Amino acid sequence: MTDQTTSTRRRASFHRLTVSNVRRLTKDSIEVTFAIPEELSAEYDYVAGQYVALRKEIPNAEGELQELRRSYSICAEPTGSEIKVAIKRDLGGLFSTWANENLTAGDQMDVMSPAGAFISKHRLTEINDPSKIDTEAQDRFVAVAAGSGITPVLAIARTILAANENTRFDLIYANKAAMDVMFLEELADLKDRYPSRLALHHVLSREQRISPLLSGRIDSEKLSTLLDTVVQAPNVDEWFLCGPFELVQLVRDQLTGMDIPAEKVRFELFSTGEPSKPQGHIGRPVKVEEDEDSYEISFTLDGLQGEVKSPVRANETVLNAALRVRPDVPFACAGGVCGTCRAKVTSGTVTMAENYALEPDEVEAGYVLTCQSHPTTEKLSVDFDA
C-alpha cells in the first residue's frame, strides 16, 4: 500500500470501470462492485474510510443527457482487485434513483481514484505493510453513524479489528427501522467474529426496542447517556462520525462539551443539511463582458497553467470559473463536503463559504475548497497540484 498521506491526497482522476456485481441491501439501497483491472490497481489503492466519485450521463426529466457526479464511500477493506460502494436512494435524488432502478452488472461508469481524509490516524490501516501496524496498543474506537453513514465506518471497523487483536470498537448506529439497516448481516457476522471486541448499539427511531435508550431519535439527552454510560467517552482514543449534518454536529458539540480533544474526532458528512445549495453541477454559464470589473484567476492543474476572468457581478466560485476553461478540473459534490476540489492559494485571497472537508492545519497552510471559495482580490492564483 502507498503511504497513508499520499493515499489521502492523491490527484483525482477518472477511469472507466465495469460493474461486476449489484447486490440489493435494502429496498432503497444497493451495493455496487467495480472490477479493478490489474494495470489500474495502483490508481485504486486506498485506505479504509475513503470515497470515490462516480460520473455518469443520465437522462433528466426532459429526456436530455445530463452529466452527474456523486461521491460514495468505499464499504470494504482494500483488496486491490475491486472497489465496493453502497448507494442509498435519496428522496428526489436523480443519480441514486437511477442507480437503484437501472444499474446492473456489465454496465460501465467513470470512477474517480479514491480520496478523502476520513481515516484512522492510528497506524492500523497499513494492511499491506505489516511492519507499520501497531499490534501492541490497546486502543478504543467509537463510531456514530446513521443510515448510509455506515458505509465508510464498516470498512474502518473491519480493518481496525483485523489489524490488532487488542483493540475495541463500539458502533452506535441509528436508523428508522430494522428493515432500513444497511449491511445488517455483515455487521452481525463481524460481531460473531469479534464478540468481545465489537459492541453494536442499534438505535431505531420508529421501532420500539427493549431498551428505551435504543428507541426513538438520538437527541441531546439520549446522546449524553450513551456517551457517559455505554461508551465511556473519556476513555476513547479515536472517534468516527458519519451521517447527516444535524447528527454529526450534535455529537461533535457534545464531545467538545466533554473536553474531548478535537484531534481525536474524525467526521464526514453526506450533505450540509442545506438542500438548496448546488450539488454536482458542471459549472453555470457566465458571460464575461469586455470592459466590466472582473477578477483574474490563474490556476495550475496537471502542471499546466490556466487563466480565466470572473465578473465581480457573477459572484461565482473559483471552481465554477475554472470549469469554464478546463472541464477536467476535479470536483465531486460541489457542496463543501468531499474535498475533491481542494487547491492551495499561492497569491491573492478568497473567502470560503463552507468547509466540512479540510483540517485546520490545511486551511492554515493556504488550502481551500474551490467550490466554496470566492475571490476577494483582483488577482488570484491557486494550485490544484499542491
Automatic annotation (TrEMBL):
Q: What Gene3D superfamilies does this protein's entry cite?
A: 3.10.20.30, Nucleotide-binding domain of ferredoxin-NADP reductase (FNR) module, Translation factors
Cofactor(s) the protein needs: FAD
- Domain 2Fe-2S ferredoxin-type: residue ranges: 295-386
Pfam families, A to Z: FAD_binding_6 (PF00970), Fer2 (PF00111), NAD_binding_1 (PF00175)
Q: What is this protein called?
A: Ring-1,2-phenylacetyl-CoA epoxidase subunit PaaE
Which CDD domains does this UniProt record tie to the protein? fer2, PA_degradation_oxidoreductase_like
Q: Does the keyword Plastid apply?
A: no
In which domain of life is the source organism classified?
Answer: Bacteria
